[in-house]
Structures are given as structure tokens and as C-alpha cells.
Amino acid sequence: MLKFGCSAGALTAAMLVSAPAFAQTSTAGTPATSSSTDAQTTANPAVPSDAPQQKDATTEQSTDGDIVVTGFRSSLENAVAEKKNRDQVVESISSEDIGRLPDASIAESIARLPGLAGQRVSGRAQTISIRGFGPDFSTTLLNGREQTSTNDNRQVEFDQYPSEVVSQVLVYKTPQASLIGQGLVGTVDLRTIRPLDFGKRVISVGGRGTYTDIDKFNPDSKRYGYRVNANYVDQFAGDTIGVSLAGSYIDEPYQFREYRSGGYSDGGPGGAALVGFPTARGTSTRLKRFGGAGTIQFKPVPEFTSTLDAFYSNFEDSQSRRGVELPLGFAVGDFFGTSFNSAGATVTDGVVTSGSFNNVQALVRNDAQRNTADLYSVGWNNAYKGADGWNAQLDLSYSRTNRSEFSFESYAGTGRGRTRGATETIGFVTTNTGSVFTPQFDYTNPALFLLTDPAGYGGDNVVQAGYFNDRRLTDEIYQGRTEIEKVIEGSFLSSVRFGMNYTRRVKTLTPDEAFVTLPGGAQEAQIPSQFLLGTFDIGYAFNGVGRALAYDPFALLDAGVLALLPRTGAQDILAKAFSVKEDVITSYLQGNIRQAIGASELTGNFGVQFVVTEQKSTGLVFGPDGNNLTRTQGDDYVDALPSLNLSLRLPSDFVFRVGAAREIARPRLDDLRVALSYGVDTGNQVNGVNVPIIRGSAGNANLRPYRATAFDATIEKYFGESGYIAIQGFYKDLTSFIYRNQEVAFDFGNLPPPINANLLTTSVGTLNQPINIGGGKLYGVEVAGTVPFGKIVPALDGFGFTGGASYTRTSIRPNPDAPATDIPGYSRWVANGTVFFEKYGINLRGSARYRSTFLGELVGFGASRDFRRARDELIIDGQIGYDFTAGALKGVSVYIQGQNLTDEPFVTEEPQSSLRVNEFQRYGRRYLAGATLKF
Asked: Which residue stretches belong to region Disordered (predicted)?
């Protein structure tokens, strides 16, 4: 804290000294533009009363001949205005132009904001961490309304939302009473265009091509893709009716090479770590998505505006994952028959870095996945703003997601069973990028590699030649909100707002899984030649043997070459199903402050939310002999969430902010599942004596939210509305945290007695489930700024920088005596920056994003969650473009973008050594070329 105070003091002094070097705008010498009801955007129910109006970024020259800033510089000025004029701590992104955010992906744009970081999935940014917390602790809104999601939890996957239909993104780092659906560390609000606010007619069309620099390694993959979009905004009937329409279609490939170690055994010399069950594979993804948004506004009189908006997304993500899997370290001394040759092994840092395995029977995997999702969202807002100071609004909305996820694994090997097929000797070398293997077989030989169960996964009864998983998810949100506000003239209290919101959410997951087998009782089958697609590139993990057999497993299933053996009653499948319903009633009271203090001004708000929650979950209790019981459990509780935001605005364009609030984040929806399985552990030992006990596992329908008390303080220096420098400090005291896989005492006496119940002396056993326990601290500091260099050195007009860096510390503990644990998504250091030049129609940008090591959340087969320590990463992007402002090509913009220019890998590893790599993924570089036309 001493360092923080000294740094803050030094920065303040530096800004005071440098302030005269910057030209002041019209706000110099007068109180800074403050929050007031006069600036309210009534068409958006969640927009606080201090919302500034977005600038028109589409005009090059005003009617009086003055030059108006456009493009990326204009989007930065809009972001500076948002940050300056609000009383919350806010970061924002505005569209450079209609249908044109600064990045091709919303998630990538958000990840460039101070204190935020993205995690790449399949080569593209998909989830966002705010201030060191993963997506479980933040929420995402669309036009101020809560949205359904395509995963098992609440967090939104941002690749569902085309950047072309979003005009602005706001990230609230501090809450206020009137912000519904707020998260514990932040709230992301995606905004679409409001045509009457936009104020003029615009038609825009655009397109781009995409190219990946890595050659396609699956025969059915692509290296080229495209994207097209169109936008239309207009006003009619004397500006009493406004219409906006936006649509985007994308068909783009993503490819990556991947190495997975499968963990590490202790079977090396002296217990050294030995690569366990590695896989080398290439994944090709083809993303197809149509997204559309539309808004109709009706303003018959100045006091009343009715707004109807809708959003739709159709999403299809088809993946081909092909590779070779090797039973190595974990197969030694097991029924796999693999043996390790320790005589020639070398050991470095406790890891076997070279050696060989004998009697290895490889698996050739041809896996496929098809994810489809439809997302619907519609909202209707009616806002009244009276001349007498009374304002009111009513907002109704509905959101729904239907998702289907098909995962199909298919295996080929030299024979069925672990010791029945041909085996080989495989050498290996392990480094900090994974292991490289030297096999002997020809993996492209269809006479050698057959459809079968090479690993014996199905035991003696089932020839498991693969696995099939079909997950169906439905998510619905109904929301209604009403608010009344009274503006008070000439008072310290500028207005008072009271409102109520009701939200019902129902989420259901239905899994369907099956063994993939061979029909007619066959043990092995050759792949029919008509279904062979050729070969695929195994990748850099194999020396000498670069390719293996490729086929489409879905085609084999459709033709009857493979068959499904359903597992309809399997307990492990039924336990994944859940149905959760939440009813949340939020009432709030907020007072807004505006008071002149000499030449300065104090603005802000204070208030409280009362949140009443009723949650219910329905699922199965797995009794003995398949006697399953359906039960519904749940809880209800009340949270009082006070908040305070104050901003002291000086005539020198300094703004000092403080904030305090009580914050919550609701439990994961899949953690609320009821499903409970149990049985008798007959091997339980107590002081060397065998004492049988009941053990079970379940979700927890009685979970309460994560809860924290938060404090924020910021010092901000603005240069009109063209730039700023800020230092932001925050502190959160988490009083309630949710830990998963905790063993608690549980009385099974009210459930059917398990098998071997006669051995028990008590019905009290243990249950493994998520629970509310422990807490801890999260604190940090962020430095952010947008600096137009021309304000300092006129010769550098057009050049500038925007970005920031954050340092965060955490100490979350399940109990006071336990060691601190990592939070998914937490990075101690996060930094990003963009250097740009924009003038004479030329726009150049170079961007960098850095995050230090973090606990990454990966998705395994069947959407199971897997947490791995990810290495730090630095991602470099760039763009070159030109905007035609005159002549026959006026309104045309062309650009070339390069993404991941250094081909930064995504790597996870075990904490013991950097040689113990878990995943190593390379996505390659992506190049995009496109154009937009506006008229």
C-alpha cells in the first residue's frame, strides 16, 4: 500500500506538471460534464442516468468546414467520454463506424481493455476475465438485459455475437443500485444501435476474406474463409420513427496442432515423471454463424419513446479432430502390456526427457464434433420523460438458447484388446514444448489399422470402437422491469430513482451417450475404401511418421459400418442431467448527486438493491439396484446490496472517484444440480481398522452466491475528451466463496439403504459436493490511458497510444488454516496496448496483449471442466487500412489485418516443472483482407 500511495502521488504530480502541455477543450475552466438525468438514454433500461450520448463517427467535415475526427480516433474519444462522464469505474469500446468495431471479434476487443484478459479456445478469444476473476464472477448483458448462454453455466460465449451488429461495449467495474444483473467483478453490456439517437440515414455493406498460414492437416478442412455484413439505419415521419437492421454471416476456418501428455506417471528411474498417455492431433474447425439485430423506435411526442429490439444468432461449429494416442507411462506394468526401457533413459529436473517404450499398441483417432446453437433475444422498452421532472419506464424482455452438441470418437488399431494387436517400439524426447516420438509403423496402412477397440476400453463384453455423446441444452430468461424517477432541481440530490425487476431463468441439460461398436458382433473391421478421405498430418510430435488414416466417423455411422449401443440407464450419464429454475426479484432505490463546490463539481449516486432469490433444482437420487428417485430441492434467500459512487470533478480536468459496494455472483448453474449417487466404501480404514462408511457425490441446490465487500479509488487526468491517464486501485473482501469437491458429513438415513447397508453402524457418511466456505482478499492496481501524441508534440498529430496494465494479488482460502488456492482465470499481470496512426485516410495499428500465467478452464469430453496452469502469453496483432474520403470511392474503406503474428502457442503445464507439459497448441497466423462501403 505504501508503494501504491507513492506511485499515485508521483503520477498525480507528473500529470499536474504536464497539464499545461495539453490543449484544453471547452470544459477547461468550468466544471466537468457531470452525470445528470438530462443525459439519460431512456431507450436502454439498464443505462444509468449518467450515460453520455455517443458521437457520430461517420462525418469527415462539419457544415461550417471544421474537421471532425472519425474512425478509430473517434471511437477512442467516445470511450474517453464514457469514462469521464460516468460516476462508475467504466471501460468501453465504441464502433469506429457503423458495423465496424476495431477488432473482428468482440472478445478480442474487450480483452484489450485495462484489467481485462481473454482466454483462447480453438484459436479465438471466447471468454473474458475481469480483474483476475474468470467468467464465473462477471455477467454479460445485451442492451441492459440478461442473456441466456450456450454452455452449462451463465457466462456468455462472445463468439455468438457478431461484432458487426454491436455498436458499443461497456464494462462496468463498479456497480450502482439501478444496474440489474451486475457481477461480482464486473458487468459487460453489449449495445446495438438506437436509430433515433443515431440521427441520420446510413447504409453500409462489407466483406472480408480470411487466410490461415498453416497448411490444412485434415483432408476435409479449409484454409480460406469469408465474412459479409450489412447495416441499415434510417428515420421517418419527422424523426418520430427510427429503424435499424444489421446482419452478418461468417464462414471461417480455424486450425490448430495440439499435443497432450495425458498426465505423468512416476514410473521413471527413481520415481521420475514419465509421459503418461500422450496424444498428438490436429483440429480443424469450420465456424458458420448468422447473426442479426433489428430495432424499431417510435417517438410520437418528445416525452415518450417506445423501443422494440431483437437479436438472433444461428451458430454452427464443426470440428474434425484426428490424431494418434499412445499408451505409455500409465500403461507400464498394466494390462496394456507396454514396458519402459529405463537403461537408456535420461532424467532432467525430475522428468524423463528421453527413452523408449516397448510393446506399444497405438490408437488412431478420427473424432468429430458438431455444435449448433440458436439464440433468440427480444426486448420492448417504453420510456416517459416528463417536463415536470417525473420519468418512468417499463421494460419487458425474453431470451432463449437451444444448443445441440454432438461429440463422436472413433478408434482404429492393429487389433482388438491391449495385447492382441501388433505392437512397436517407440522412442521419445521430452522438452518444454512437449514430447516428440519416433514410431516404426506405417499409420497410413488400412490393412494394418482396423476399426476396433485397441485399448480394450469396453472390457470383455463390448467392442468399444469409439464413443458418442449428444448433449441438448435449453436456457430461457423472462425479465420485466419498471422504474420511476423524480428529478429535483437546485438540490444536492439531483434525482431519485425507484425500480423493481423480476427475472425467471430455467435451464435444462439432457445428455445422451452411447458406445460406438461394430455391428454383428464383429471384433475388428477394415475401413471401407469408399469412406477413406486420404491421410492427415499427425503433426510435430511424430518424427518419421507424419501422416495417418483419415475418415469421417459420421459417414461410417450413417452407412452402418459403425453402430451405437445406447447407455440410457448409466448412472454416470444421468448424473450429468439437471434442470434449474431461478426466480429473482430485485427492488432498488438510488439517489443521484450533483453539487457545485466552488469551481469544481461533486457527482455520484448512492443506493441499495434488495435481491430476493428462489432457486430450485430437479434431478435423480441413485438408489440401489437401479431404484432411482426424482427429487426437487432448493433454497430462498435475500441479499441487501448497498453501493456508493462519488466523483469529484475539477476544472483542470482531474476526476477523483471513490466507490464502495456489496457485490455478489450467483453460483454456477451446473453446481446447483441435484443428482446424488452413493454407496458403501467397504475399504475405509480408521486407525488400521476397517470401518465401512457411505460415500456419495452430488451437486448442491442450496448454494448461496459468492459475496464480497468492495472498495475502489481512482485518479484520472483528462485532456478534454481526446485522451486521459488514470490510476485505479481496488480491494475486495470475499466473505463467501464456493469450493467444489468438498467432503462434508451427510446423513443418508432418509434415502433407500445402499447395497451392503448391513455392514454399517451409522447412516452418517460423507458427501462430495460444492459448498459455501472460506473467502479471502483480492486487490490490485490498474494504470490506463489514451494519449494522442499530437497534444504533446504537434508534429506527431495522428499518432497515439491506448492501453493499460494491471497488477492483482489474491489470497482465497477454503478455511483460515488452508493454503491459498488459485481462481480460474486469475493472472497477476495483465497488460495491453495499441499504437496507432490515423490521418489523411490512412490508419495503422499495432496491438499487443500480455497476461501472466493463469489457471485456464478447459473443456473435456462431455463438457467436463478441467483446470490447468497456463503459461504466460503475448499476442501481437496489426492492421493497415485506408478510408477514401473524396471522389468516386468516397465511403469506401479497405484494410488488411494480421492476427497472432508471432504464432504464440497456448501451453498448460503441471506446477512441478516446465518440462511437464499438459497441452501445447499452435494456432498459426491469420490474415484478413476486407472492405466496407457506406453511403
From this structure: 26-64
Sheet containing 351-360: which strands, arranged edge to edge?
A: 339-348, 351-360, 424-431, 434-438
Asked if 160 and 373 count as a contact pair (C-beta separation under 8 A), the reply is yes
Q: Hey, what's the cell of 476?
A: 430461457
Beta bridge partners of 854: 870
The number of residues making up the chain comes to 935
Q: What are phi and psi of 349, to 5 degrees?
A: 55, 40
Could you tell me the three cell numbers for 928? 484478413
Cα–Cα distance, 413 to 448 (Å, whole number): 8
Are 477 and 553 contacting, i.e. CB atoms less than 8 angstroms apart? no
The pLDDT of residue 646 is 98
% of the chain beyond a pLDDT of 70? 90
Q: Are strands 547-551 and 532-537 parallel, antiparallel or unpaired?
A: antiparallel
Task: Give the total number of structural domains in the chain.
Answer: 1
Buried b (16+ CB within 10 A) or exposed e, 767-795: bebbbbebbbebbbbbbbbbbbbbbeeee
On whether the CB atoms of residues 316 and 370 are closer than 8 A, the answer is yes
pLDDT digits (tens, 9 = 90+) for 797-836: 999 999 999 999 988 887 767 777 778 888 899 999 999 9
Q: What is the pLDDT of residue 512?
A: 92
Pairing verdict, β 186-191 and 138-142: parallel
Handedness of CA 235, 236, 237, 238 (dihedral sign): positive
> What is the distance between the terminal CA atoms of the chain, rounded to a whole angstrom?
54
Q: Are 492 and 593 in contact, with CB atoms under 8 Å apart?
A: yes
For the record, the C-alpha cell of 162 comes out as 457478431
The reply to whether 294 falls in a domain is no
Nearest CA to 726 out of 649, 657, 825, 773 is that of 657
In 666-798, which ranges are E strands? Answer: 676-681, 685-686, 689-690, 693-698, 706-718, 724-736, 738-747, 764-772, 775-788
Q: Is residue 808 part of a domain?
A: yes
Tell me, what amino acid is at 858?
L
Scanning the structure block, which residue is given the C-alpha cell 499409420? 443
Q: Report the DSSP beta bridge partners of residue 833.
A: 803, 848
Chain centroid to Cα 934, Å, comes to 32
Query: Are residues 601 and 31 in contact, defined by beta-carbon separation less than 8 angstroms?
Result: yes
Closest by CA to 699, choosing from 814, 577, 821, is 577
| Residue 402 banded pLDDT, cuts 50, 70, 90 | very high
Q: Please report, as a single letter, which amino acid is at residue 711.
A: F
Q: Is the dihedral of CA 66, 62, 651, 789 positive or negative?
A: negative
425 within domain boundaries: yes
Range of the domain at 798: 2-277+304-667+704-737+774-934
Beta pairing, strands 693-698 & 764-772? parallel
Distance in angstroms (rounded) separating the CA atoms of residues 212 and 225: 9
| Structural domain contains residue 765 | no
Q: What's the Cα-to-Cα distance from 720 to each of 399, 654, 717, rounded to whole Å? A: 40, 10, 9
Residue 403's alpha-carbon distances to 248, 419, 474, 675, in angstroms, are 20, 41, 7, 22
Distance between CA atoms of residues 179 and 89, nearest Å = 13
Residue 67, helix vs strand vs coil:
strand
Backbone angles phi, psi at 4, to 5 degrees: -60, -45
Question: Region 307-323: what's the mean pLDDT?
Answer: 94
Measure the CA–CA gap between 334 and 419, rounded to whole angstroms: 11
The phi and psi torsions of 461 (rounded to 5 degrees) equal -100, -25
Q: How much is the pTM?
A: 0.89
CB hemisphere CA count around 9 (13 angstroms): 6
CATH no. for residue 114? 2.40.170.20
Quote the distance between the C-alpha of residue 595 and its chain's center: 40
Model pLDDT, residue 208: 92
Q: What cell numbers appear for 253 in the block?
A: 476456418
Exposed / middle / buried, residue 925 (Cβ in 10 Å: 0-12, 13-18, 19+):
middle
